[in-house]
Each structure stands twice: as structure tokens, then as C-alpha cells.
Amino acid sequence: MPGSRPAKGVLKPSGTIWISGTYHSIYQCGFALQKHGFHILNDIAWFKPNAPPNLSCRFFTASHETLIWARKDKNARHTFNYQAMKNGDFPEDKLKNANVQMRSVWSLSAPKTAEKKFGKHPTQKPEDLLRRIILASTNEGDIVLDPFTGSSTTGLMAYRWGRSFIGVDTEEPYLALSVKRFEEMVEKMVKPTFRTSLPIFGNYCRPHKTALNKLIKNKFFRWLSRLRLAIYTT
Q1: What tens digit of pLDDT does each residue of 2-33 get?
Q2: What is the spatial distance between Cα 223 and Cα 81, in angstroms, rounded to a whole number?
Q3: Which end of the chain is less congested by CB atoms within 10 angstroms, N or C?
Q4: What is the tens place of the pLDDT at every residue in 36-92?
């Protein structure tokens, strides 16, 4: 896996990395992580209740992906928001019972139609999956890096939950798709009739409108301008 060594270089000592894949590649990724000194914390089975059927009828229908969660330094203390995962409200997951430890099998549907309204990415992940990963393994103010950002679901969820985000991708059409998704999120946030609630750990966080507008002007708009410049001048 060519990205594992550079990723280790930019992670802080207590930083962690998430990799998702199917049986075609996930075992090679796990081997590469261990070869480069990462300490594997969990392998998560992401079960897709709405997985497409197996048209060949010659093997079992592939209805899950595997996620590997690994720590940079075996002896470092990584972030794991245990109580948030145990006591949080996750109605989208039929396998998660209230006030019970989060287990390593997650039942989450593939991306909803609304998440693909500006176009599709071949490996796009659902927002619910990235929300859980970010809330579990990062804190507010942390920096989330996605070196294969695609349509930037990771970035959308990072910003929505108070993290900073760096996204990298070599495909210009997907970066343009990312811009559209961020612009939609910003547009919804700055409407005069802005009224929203963000579910977090079973409670609700209502951002103050003035503070939210300040955040948008300071981060989102500058980010979008830089991203547009990067897309249309390269």
C-alpha cells in the first residue's frame, strides 16, 4: 500500500488511521500497515443491508466491507471516545442497542440518493459511516486528513462535527464534486431561516447563528476559494 509510509510521517505519535476495502485489497493493506510499524486496533465489518445482488450466482453475495483501524505508535495513547460510542444515539444501525458497548460489526446502508445528487464516486462511503469514525477517534479541533478524498464525505463530516480537514485527490472531476457538496452545506447554513439541530451522543447541539456564520466565513469560504483555484488552474 503506497500511502501507508507517507501517512505515518504526517500522523502525530498518538494518531490513528482508518482504511476501508473489500477482499480484493484489504488484506494487502493490513499487511502493509504492520510492515510499516502500525499497531492494528480493530477490524470492523461494515454490513450493508442494501447491498446489490450477486448476478453471477456462483459465490456468496458480497454484503460487507472491512475497515482497519490502526495506531501509529504501539505505546502511544490514542483517542477513543468510548462513552460516545456506547451511549450515543445511532438509529441508523439496527445492530446497535442503546447503552451497550459498540461492537465491531456495523449495519449501515450504502450512501443515500441525496448524498449522490451531484454525481457518483465509485467508492463513496455513507455519511453515517464517516460520522461514526470521526466521532469515535477524533476530538473537536483535530485535523482529519483524507489522502484519497474523492467526493469529500470525510471532509463534510469533519467540518460538521468541529474538526479541521485536509483532502487530497488526483481526479479533477471528484474535486469539483467536492466543491458542490461543500457549497450546498454552506448554503444551507447561511440561509436567513437557518434552524437546525445536530444529533450528537443522543442529545442536540444547536449552533449559534452568529458564531456559525463567522466559522463559515473564516474556514469554509476560504477553503472553497482555494479548492476552486486548485481545480481550475491545474
Answers
A1: 556 667 888 999 999 999 999 999 999 999 99
A2: 28
A3: C
A4: 999 999 999 999 999 999 999 999 999 999 999 999 998 999 999 999 999 999 999
**For residues 165-177, average pLDDT:** 91
Bridge partners for 233 per DSSP: none
| Residue of 138, 129, 165, 131 whose CA lies nearest to 149 | 165
All three cell numbers of 229, joined, read 483555484
Cα-Cα end-to-end distance for the chain = 27
Cα→Cα distances 124→10, 49, 151, Å:
24, 16, 7
pLDDT one-digit tens code per residue, 183-222: 898 887 766 544 443 433 333 333 334 444 545 555 554 5
111 close to 127: Cβ distance less than 8 angstroms: yes
Please give the domain boundaries of the chain with CATH numbers for all domains.
Answer: 1-78 (3.40.50.150), 111-234 (3.40.50)
| Grid coordinates given for 52 | 446489490
Q: For residue 224, give Cα distances in angstroms to 42, 68, 163, 188, 232.
A: 34, 31, 16, 15, 12
* Lookup: cell for 195: 434552524
* Residue 39: all three cell numbers together: 499497531
Model confidence, pTM: 0.80
**Amino acid identity, residue 170?**
T
The amino acid at residue 143 is: I
> Could you identify the residue written with the cell 457549497?
183
Amino acid sitting at position 153:
T
Strand runs labelled E in 48-132: 64-71, 105-107
- The Cα 170–Cα 150 span in angstroms is 9
The grid coordinates of residue 112 equal 443515500
Strand partners, 70: 17, 40
